Amino acid sequence: MKKTLLTLLSDQVVPSALFISSLAEVGDDVFVVTTQKMKDKGKINDLEESLGRKWKIREIVVQNEDSVSELSSHLDTIRWIEYDTAFIDLTLGTKIMSLAVHSYFRRFDELYTRPRVSFFYQPAGKNCIKRIDADDAVDPRLLSLDEYLSACGITAINRQEACIAAAETTSAIMLEYPERWGTAGKLFRKLRNARKPKLSSDKSISLREGEMPQIVLQDSAEWSPTAEELHLMQDFCSAAHFDIGSITKKQIEYLSGGWLEEWFYHKALQTMPELGREQIALSLHIKTRAGLENELDVALINHRNAFRYAECKTSLESDQSGASFLVDTLYKQAAIRRNFGLTSSPIIVTIDKIKRNNALSRAQDLDLKIIHHDIIYDEDALKLELAACLK
């Protein structure tokens, strides 16, 4: 039985990727109806990348998205009667394009014996592929994180392949951080951001007294931790089960804040144990089609094919000036969100206490979630918030 699939394509590519990957089989002919503008923006290429180039996309490109006659003329060039069945996805495109495609293919059941046409639509936020001409629906397959990002025109450059410390160690650090390790964390941030020594992945440094290398900060000032500061750093290092005589770049990054990313990563997996390695990533470096690079501390695709990502900050205050950059962080995440499609939802995770109601109100206005001190240290509130943010 020869089958074809046709989908309309616009700025949002994910629904088309879900439709094809859920209903197409190898060997099926796949058609895309789109505009020249969308093709020039690389949307067809994004779709092929997301599908792993398993299907050769046959393009039907119109110049005028509001011209029913132009679209019909393009459709007339295909011998649809050669197919036994045709699955038509009307989710994307303009209303005129959807109506024109529906009107064009509806006549096949009325006038011809083949193909047998079925129309589909994906309601926003429902994660289902609903058959328009019947009461049933298809559950779409779960996209991998890379497939989702490719559909958004984003390339995953690299990610942290494994956690630096055990989950139990990270949880223990979280419990004691505000009272015991906050100052040590700031000291490790100074070390991580220092101009000298230049930390590299294949070298380590000693935190033992008299063995520490010369430290030059970004402002060219030399810095030597006091005896009290050094003992704090050593204790924090030991609490993480690292060797104070040979601490690596990755371990310094962990102690300066990476532990919070790993904590949230573990909490995400506890909240959604069904997630596989293909659906979640830690410290994910990405690049947009325009060449802009960014890092997502934790990113995942949940069981509803919705994208969630978190920025984890042990503090939202500048170590140098003490100024709060909560609002800047909110707007930064709102701007990044535009790259990830309609189902994306950013989360800010911080140990800080958020006292300003205007900041929380602004986050709500921007549809951003903040998991802060009062939630983190309330077990019941944390479970509810994680479920609300991630699922």
Summarize this, please?
With 391 residues, the chain is of the alpha/beta class.
Q: Which series of helices and strands comes N to C?
A: EHEHHEHEHEEEHEHEHEHEEEHEHEHH
**Rg computed from alpha carbons, rounded to a whole number of angstroms:** 26 Å
Coarse morphology: elongated
Mean pLDDT score, rounded?
Answer: 90
| Portion in strands | 15-25%
Low confidence ranges: none
Helix content class? 25-40%
Distance between the termini: 39 Å
Task: Describe this entry's structure for a reader.
40% of the residues lie in helices and 20% in strands. It has 391 residues and is of the alpha/beta class. It has a seven-stranded mixed β-sheet, sandwiched between helices. A six-stranded mixed β-sheet has the order 8-11-12-13-14-15, sandwiched between helices. Strand 6 (129-131) and strand 7 (137-138) form a beta hairpin. Helix 3 (43-50) runs antiparallel to helix 6 (145-151), helix 7 runs antiparallel to helix 8 (227-239) and helix 7 packs antiparallel against helix 9 (249-271). The longest helix has 26 residues, at 167-192. The radius of gyration is 26 Å and the shape is elongated. The mean pLDDT is 90.
